[in-house]
């Protein structure tokens, strides 16, 4: 990440230079007053989000930060030179040879850091005594806590950090009234005032490094401070050496899940694919933790394809042939399917055919079942052609063929499958698999029958599982079904007809497979059995399965994904056809009652386009394609009426509505919430004040959990009754409003920012849900710009401008929804999309956007590859 230093005569001049160089996405890292003026260190939000390391110094050397978070040495700086610079910043005199010797570098850095922090807190610490005390404490002090706990151990009082005024949304130091107003380095508070009766020590006479300690130091306080300082030193050393924080006794979920899946019978290839998508939020949890197990079960169930509706098998008119090795229960399963059909549709439209002339009594067994059900049955030899008989049964809605069982190594298998496909009517193949077979045997059966079907010009996609009640483990069977993309239709678990047959239930089968896992092997056994996991499977079939699982999950969970995927398909058309295809998609959008409209600002971006508006579900998820502003009515009332026709019942506004729009919304009692700035003026108790001047007033509400700029945060809200005039009103109109002031804080208590909203006075608690949606969509414009730039780089050229903007805004809205949602489906999707990019990446909206683009590109590439293989075949 590149950090740039800006200088200005005053705050506004420095901010002007920042905006000129970095634009609206500038992120202020630090600021201070120097002899040359106001100094600002800044970078861009995109670089800060995408950088896996802490900021490095730019071409203009920036002062080192006191923050221990994401600390790294500046480029080109040795530890010795950096130690000298750090000592100079804290006013510490450091001998040259104290850091030059590598053997003593650790102890020197401990002493340096202890002395510097002691001086910062007004505690005298002689160098010789510090070394002796540090050695003693290292022997007595337990291993250091993780960094977050060390921070919690040293946390100044909340009022120790004075609030800084904001300029254009960024906290800046106030103009100094004199020398005393110059801020202290790093923003740390001044030393505490002396207690009553104590003599204040002048700055010149204060004990410094290397001076004898005065009587002001309490030994108990010194010991506590030393322990705290040593903990910080250990944390700093850990960050400098880039050692990840370890959790004692917690190996993480990855290794435990490996053992569990291996014990359940799943293969190495599938395990690699599954665990590559493990969300970063779960990586350090125990494998047995409920969230980790829930993720594993959801992921396996999503990969396992099952028939959604039993009726669909019977309503698909045609011929169904049950094929498989000997002894899997084809004849009994034929009777079970026939009984279920008769119970639904009666016996008239069904006919049974058996070609099993090898097994004694096979014909008679099926005839007995047919007589009981009252259906027509025909028996043929295995070598007899089926064309004539199937022609006579053309009036039957469904014909079920019970074929002769053949080993997967029988040379006649290919001829048997080819004989089924010689008639005019296509024959659907249903593979029968026994749950008691070993994993290697199941793999050989599936591969052989799939090759035979392809050789005969047919497709083998459906499976029925038998003998589930006799199986010790289901993992090998589910592994084969997932890897080969086969659909499981029914599960048989006994001999009773038709009771012992049920439609396949994916989650229940996954639960049974994981419950049947054997005792987990030791860590050494797992390391020997399982190859090292790659972040992304190198196997093309594995990539296809992972893409398919992510695609299906996106389609089920996000309503806006399907229309956006259709719009993506138009990118391969000529520009004129792209516009027509997009117009057809817009025309096909249907109204849906109870939705929310997020209105963007009616001003163009730097690229010349305006941010599209977006319909949302009541849960805050995107719905349909983004609404381009130039396709909407120009009048505000007409736009609201147009949204009303689409089922919109609530509105997220970028600013207060005009008088007519305000009245229109009020007459229909349509909830709305508008964003506001700190400088917006409102009336409160007879005074006209800015919202920023009203901070801290009003009723405090329960804090809301949320996410802000890729980290978990808490929104502390206050609600205050105010009045304001509609936008564009030239005369004073005191209309009652609720003002909402939200303070964003990280989980560690760090202040992240402040936001303001306004809502009508009759809207109270419903405004909180709208407020959460509004905050969750903050930064959508920045993501849209990023997607706008990525699309041509993805090979989508030439792109018609309307289609390009629709895709960019739609992808940005999807990424934003995935980033802010804490639902289980969002957790699973984040893991899958981040796994597409390789490695273990931190969660961020920008990376999720990259994953969505890669998913769409990869799907197009795989479809092109499939078409190419079909042409070759």
From TrEMBL:
Q: Where in the cell is it found?
A: Cell membrane
Provide the residue span(s) of the region labelled Disordered: 46-218
Q: Where is the composition biased (Basic and acidic residues)?
A: 130-142
Q: Pfam families from the xrefs?
A: SRP54
Which domain of life, per UniProt?
Bacteria
Output a single Gene Ontology CC term carried by this record. Answer: plasma membrane
SRP54-type proteins GTP-binding domain sequence ranges: 317-515
Query: Keywords assigned by UniProt?
Result: Bacterial flagellum biogenesis, Bacterial flagellum protein export, Cell membrane, Cell projection, Cilium, Flagellum, GTP-binding, Membrane, Nucleotide-binding, Protein transport, Transport
Q: What does this protein do?
A: Necessary for flagellar biosynthesis. May be involved in translocation of the flagellum.
PANTHER family from the entry? FLAGELLAR BIOSYNTHESIS PROTEIN FLHF, SIGNAL RECOGNITION PARTICLE RECEPTOR SUBUNIT ALPHA
The identity of this protein, by name, is Flagellar biosynthesis protein FlhF
- Organism, by scientific name, is Bisbaumannia pacifica
Q: Which gene encodes it?
A: flhF
């Amino acid at each position: 990440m590149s950090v740039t230093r800006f200088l200005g005569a005053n705050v506004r001049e420095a901010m002007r230079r920042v905006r000129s160089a970095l634009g609206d996405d500038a992120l202020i890292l630090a600021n201070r007053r120097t002899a040359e003026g106001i100094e600002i260190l800044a970078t861009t939000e995109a670089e800060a989000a995408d950088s896996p390391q802490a900021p490095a110094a730019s071409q203009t050397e920036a002062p080192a930060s006191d923050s221990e978070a994401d600390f790294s040495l500046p480029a080109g700086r040795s530890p010795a030179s950096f130690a000298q610079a750090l000592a100079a910043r804290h006013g510490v005199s450091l001998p040259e040879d104290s850091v030059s010797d590598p053997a003593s570098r650790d102890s020197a850095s401990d002493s340096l850091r202890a002395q510097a922090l002691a001086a910062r807190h007004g505690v005298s610490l002689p160098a010789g005594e510090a070394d002796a005390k540090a050695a003693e404490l290292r022997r007595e002090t337990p291993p250091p806590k993780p960094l977050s706990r060390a921070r919690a151990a040293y946390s100044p009082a909340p009022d120790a950090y004075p609030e800084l005024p904001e300029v254009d949304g960024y906290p800046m130091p106030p103009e100094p009234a004199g020398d005393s107003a110059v801020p202290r380095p790093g923003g740390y508070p001044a030393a505490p005032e002396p207690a009553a009766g104590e003599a204040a020590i002048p700055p010149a006479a204060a004990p410094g490094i290397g001076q004898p300690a005065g009587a002001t130091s309490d030994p108990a306080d010194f010991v506590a401070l030393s322990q705290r300082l040593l903990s910080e030193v250990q944390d700093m050393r850990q960050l400098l050496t880039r050692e990840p924080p370890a959790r004692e006794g917690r190996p993480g979920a990855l290794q435990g899940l490996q053992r569990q899946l291996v014990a359940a019978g799943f293969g190495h290839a599938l395990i690699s694919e599954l665990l590559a998508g493990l969300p970063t939020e779960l990586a350090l949890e125990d494998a047995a933790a409920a969230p980790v197990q829930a993720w594993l079960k959801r992921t396996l169930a999503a990969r396992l394809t099952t028939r959604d509706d039993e009726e669909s098998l019977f309503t698909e008119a045609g011929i169904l042939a049950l094929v498989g090795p000997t002894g899997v229960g084809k004849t009994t399963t034929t009777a079970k399917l026939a009984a279920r059909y008769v119970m639904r549709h009666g016996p008239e439209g069904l006919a049974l055919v058996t070609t099993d002339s090898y097994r004694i009594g096979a014909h008679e067994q099926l005839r007995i079942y047919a007589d009981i059900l009252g259906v027509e049955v025909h028996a043929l030899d295995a070598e007899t052609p089926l064309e004539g008989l199937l022609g006579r049964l053309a009036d039957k809605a469904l014909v079920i063929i019970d074929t002769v069982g053949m080993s997967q190594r029988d040379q006649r298998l290919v001829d048997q499958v080819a004989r089924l496909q010689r008639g005019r009517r296509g024959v659907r193949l249903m593979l029968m698999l026994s749950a008691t077979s070993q994993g290697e045997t199941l793999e050989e059966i599936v591969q052989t029958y799939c090759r035979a079907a392809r050789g005969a010009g047919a497709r083998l996609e459906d499976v029925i599982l038998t003998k589930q009640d006799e199986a010790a483990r289901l993992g090998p069977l589910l592994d084969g079904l997932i890897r080969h993309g086969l659909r499981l239709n029914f599960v048989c678990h006994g001999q009773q007809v038709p009771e012992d047959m049920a439609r396949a239930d994916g989650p229940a089968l996954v639960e049974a497979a994981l419950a049947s896992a054997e005792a987990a092997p030791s860590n050494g056994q797992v390391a020997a059995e399982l190859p090292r996991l790659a972040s992304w499977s190198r196997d093309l079939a594995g990539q296809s399965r992972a893409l398919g699982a992510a695609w299906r999950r996106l389609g089920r969970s996000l309503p806006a994904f399907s229309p956006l995927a259709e719009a993506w398909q138009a990118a391969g058309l000529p520009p004129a056809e792209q516009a027509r295809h997009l117009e057809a998609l817009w025309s096909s959008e249907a109204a849906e009652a109870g939705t929310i409209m997020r209105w963007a600002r009616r001003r163009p971006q730097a690229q010349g386009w305006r941010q599209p508006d977006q319909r949302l579900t009541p849960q805050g998820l995107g719905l349909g394609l983004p609404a381009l502003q130039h396709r909407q009515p120009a009048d505000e009332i007409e736009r609201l009426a147009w949204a009303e026709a689409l089922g919109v019942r609530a509105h997220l506004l970028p600013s207060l509505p005009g008088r007519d729009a305000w009245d229109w919304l009020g007459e229909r009692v349509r909830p709305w919430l508008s964003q506001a700035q700190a400088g917006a003026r409102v009336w409160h108790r007879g005074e006209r004040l800015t919202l920023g001047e009203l901070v801290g007033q009003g009723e405090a509400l329960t804090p809301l959990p949320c996410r802000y700029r890729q980290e978990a945060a808490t929104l502390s809200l206050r609600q205050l009754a105010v009045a304001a005039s509609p936008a564009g009103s030239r005369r004073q109109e005191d209309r009652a409003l609720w003002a909402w002031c939200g303070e964003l804080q990280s989980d560690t208590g760090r202040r992240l920012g402040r936001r303001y909203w306004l809502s009508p006075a009759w809207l109270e608690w419903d405004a909180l849900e709208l407020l959460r949606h509004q905050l969750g969509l903050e930064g959508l414009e920045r993501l849209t710009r990023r997607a706008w730039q990525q699309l041509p780089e993805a090979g989508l050229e030439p792109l018609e401008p309307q289609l390009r903007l629709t895709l960019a805004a739609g992808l940005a809205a999807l990424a934003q929804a995935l980033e802010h949602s804490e639902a289980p489906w969002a957790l699973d999707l984040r893991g899958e999309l981040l796994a597409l990019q390789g490695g273990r990446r931190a969660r961020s909206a920008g990376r999720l956007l990259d994953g969505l683009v890669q998913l769409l590109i990869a799907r197009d590439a795989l479809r092109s590859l499939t078409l190419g293989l079909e042409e070759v075949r």
